[in-house]
Amino acid sequence: MSSLTPQPEPPSPPSTARSSPYSEPPLSLPLPPLLSRDDSRVLVMVGSGALAPYLIRAHRSVRPGIEKVIIWNRSAAKARDLARRLAEDEGGTKGGKVIFEHAEVLDEVIGLGDVVSCATSSHDPIVLGKRLKQGAHLDLVGSFIPAMRECDDDALVRGRVFVDFEEAKAEAGELVGAFERGAISPEDVVGTLVDLAGGLKVGRISPEDITVFKSVGTAIVDLLAAQLAYETHISGSP
């Protein structure tokens, strides 16, 4: 990256804030190679909103062996539409390297996912831990306040749980509720994004491990994304 011209030192960013949806994909990008299995073949995308295409792209970029993407949404029509658009971008349902499908019933496909990525605004758990296969990786990036929840306690009990930042323990509905119910404790959270990236914590010990990553987003990622966009612009890169 090029260096920016001298400028006043920016104020310290807030510790956590969900300032824009664009804060999520950058956080998820470095994590699949640390948490998901390198032989992952099937990605189940839970949710078909604005974040879904970016998350699918992120997982595929680090797991090129993914052969099938199954999309589920409460609105089957929206899931079907996203699957169609992605297939067209890929070169057609039959001609593309990856098969894109939509699912009518989530419980029927969760167990197929080597990677399960959730980006919904659900207030009730929609991913049940008992449905996850051994060795699966679960991303939870949709909920960001204590009232929201994308998975049940069993998913956390079964998994090695990581968070983007420590503040997630007080903000993520999945974690806050699980702590209150005694399903897991804050000490059961293995580590943070920094711990993983710095090699301070091991993401996956066994191929049979279920790994869980919970992100609530942070404003600092928006600042980094803005700086990257600016530097890309002034460098003339596409």
TrEMBL record:
Region of interest called Disordered, as start-end residue ranges on this chain: 1-31
SUPFAM superfamilies noted in UniProt: NAD(P)-binding Rossmann-fold domains (SSF51735)
Tree of life domain: Eukaryota
UniProt protein name: Uncharacterized protein
Pfam family, one: OCD_Mu_crystall
Coiled coil: none
Gene3D superfamilies noted in UniProt: NAD(P)-binding Rossmann-like Domain (3.40.50.720), ornithine cyclodeaminase, domain 1 (3.30.1780.10)
UniProt record similarity statement: Belongs to the ornithine cyclodeaminase/mu-crystallin family.
InterPro entries to which the protein is assigned, alphabetical: NAD(P)-bd_dom_sf, ODC_Mu_crystall, ODC_N
GO terms assigned for molecular function: oxidoreductase activity
One GO BP annotation of this record: carboxylic acid metabolic process
Annotated organism of origin: Vanilla planifolia (Vanilla)
Family matches, as PANTHER family: KETIMINE REDUCTASE MU-CRYSTALLIN
A GO cellular-component term linked to this record: cytoplasm
